[in-house]
Amino acid sequence: MSKTFHILTYGCQMNEHDSEKICGMLNSIGYKEIDNNNADLVILNTCLIRENAAQKVFGKLGELKGLKRNNPNMLISVCGCMMQKDDVREKTLKQCPFVDIIFGTNNIHELPELIKKAQTEKLKAVHIIENTVEIHEEMPKVRKYKHKALINITYGCNNFCTYCVVPYTRGREKSREPEDILAEIKDLASNGCKEVTLLGQNVNSYGNTLSRDYSFADLLYDINKIDGIEFIRFMTSHPKDLSDDLIKAIKECDKICNHVHLPVQSGSTKVLNEMNRRYTKEHYLGLVEKIRREIPDAAITTDIIIGFPGETEEDFLETVDLVKKVKYESAFTFLYSIREGTKAATMENQIPDDIKHDRFNRLLEELYPIVLDKNKECIGKTYRILIDGVSKNSDDYLTGRSEHFRLVHFKGDKSLIGKIVNVKIDSAKTFFLEGTIQK
Ligand code: 5AD
Ligand code: SF4
What's the pLDDT score for residue 192? Predict the structure, then answer.
């Protein structure tokens, strides 16, 4: 009988895609995925971006400890970003001695060997590759969806924003060869894939490590030519590297969605400087103006951190002012969370929790009405939507994203999943739109 595995993925799309590779590796050695803990192997693919992400993993490990007591043959594995940091990995090994296999973000390809070690030699299998220039193109993937796919274009990050743990968990930035990316997308398209999301910590610096002159914009033009692909999305764009060529590519290529996720993090130039973001509030607002002028239909979304060390009330009000000026289509807002090993963790003037929460709530009070107003502007308009699946809240409703990344719910039959339909928007809420499929 074949063995079974269950995987839980925490964090971002990068991790989701890594899990697709882990599933591919496991399938290749005969493991079948199931969706509960009664598996021969349970894997937690972890995230360390903020403290609550790590807490969730330790909570889950506590639960698995009990299961393992009843089923000693079960293997427990922890991988992903948390394992790349020595202190977190040591803490995991100490607090959770029942974990059998530990690997990181750079050695997913070693998983079969590690399983063998844990199973046949009954040894704890721990291996991490710290920082590497290698890219493993050969890994099989089990994709979660047929109609849309996540595609890595760069790995790692060189930016060292002072709050961020990613440069320590994902290593230095490296770009995949364009031929490998284009071949992967052509293959997907020939198998019915209609949408690709290109992933990189900073897609705008794609190409920097290639031996020839080939930029992110060049890559977009080439992907735009691939038959069968209808929607091209990408994230994330660092504002310091957003080029005119990229804006031109979005404008000229019909398949690129008119959506730019442009994390601002703070509206205060002083805080941006402390964050090592390498742009000013004015530069950012200039970029927004350029995008809105060149692509009037573009949606701009962002990430904002509240309560970075030393953030004063005036700094916070600068962020509120920026949000009002940009009028974001949507924004992810985060409370600053100390990440050990980063520069900001040792900064003085950490902001007390009550002040952080108060500012956070006041920011949302300004942000949500802006987002709702923008969503209301969609009422009466019709959008081409690739149907992702059934809505979480009701089986009668299907769901997909508009090209501006808005979640849209509409009535329809499950057989339409994976198809592109025209949906006319009837009503708007802060977090989603509702509409009707047009015949
Ligand atoms: N605290 C709070 N938010 C953080 N982010 C990254 N690191 C931290 C941190 N230490 C946020 C940033 C980033 C998003 C993915 O997570 O806004 O853009
Ligand atoms: Fe983190 Fe900054 Fe790199 Fe984004 S660009 S992953 S926020 S260090």
Answer: 97
CATH class of the domain whose range is 258-376 = alpha beta
Rounded to whole angstroms, how far apart are CA atoms 100 and 119? 9
Cβ neighbours for 304, distance < 8 A, ≥ 6 positions apart: 263, 264, 265, 266, 319, 323, 331, 332, 333, 334, 363
> Per-residue pLDDT tens for 333-352?
999 999 999 999 999 999 99
Helix boundaries (H) for 351-395 = 353-376
**Residues spanned by CATH 2.40.50.140 within the chain?**
382-437
Rounded to two decimals, the pTM is 0.96
Which among 204, 120, 219 is positioned nearest to 159, based on CA atoms? 204
| Ligand 2 neighbour 431 (Cβ under 6 A) | no
What six digits make up the tokens of 15? 């991790």
Spatial distance between the Cα atoms of 439 and 423, rounded to a whole number of angstroms: 9
d(CA 337, CA 51): 6
> Which are the contacts of 6, defined by CB distance < 8 A and separation ≥ 6?
33, 34, 35, 36, 37, 38, 39, 41, 42, 43
Among 87, 92, 66, 90, which Cα is nearest to 77's?
92
Question: 3-state class of 42 per DSSP?
Answer: strand
Ligand 2 pocket test, candidate residues 159, 170, 208, 265, most atoms within 8 A of CB: 159
Mutate to test the pocket of ligand 2, among 201, 276, 278, 337 (most ligand atoms within 8 A of CB): 201
Q: How far apart are the first and last CA of the chain?
A: 48
Given the CA of residue 201, which atom of ligand 2 is nearest to it? 6
CATH class of 145-230+238-252: alpha beta
pLDDT digits (tens, 9 = 90+) for 148-177: 999 999 999 999 999 999 999 999 999 999
CATH 3.30.750.200 placement within the chain = 258-376
Q: Where are the alpha helices (DSSP H) in 275-417?
A: 281-294, 313-326, 353-376
Q: Measured from the CB, is residue 360 less than 6 Å from ligand 1? A: no
Q: Is 337 close to ligand 1, i.e. is its CB under 6 Å away?
A: yes
Report the alpha-carbon distance of residue 26 to residue 172 in Å, rounded. 27
Q: Which amino acid is at 225?
A: K
Cβ of 117 less than 6 Å from ligand 2: no
All residues at 6 or more sequence positions from 383 whose CB lies less than 8 Å from its CB, including other chains:
402, 403, 408, 422, 423, 425, 435
151-165, 310-324, 387-401: the lowest-pLDDT one: 387-401
The DSSP code for 353 is H
CATH code: domain 382-437 is 2.40.50.140
Handedness of CA 306, 308, 312, 315 (dihedral sign): negative
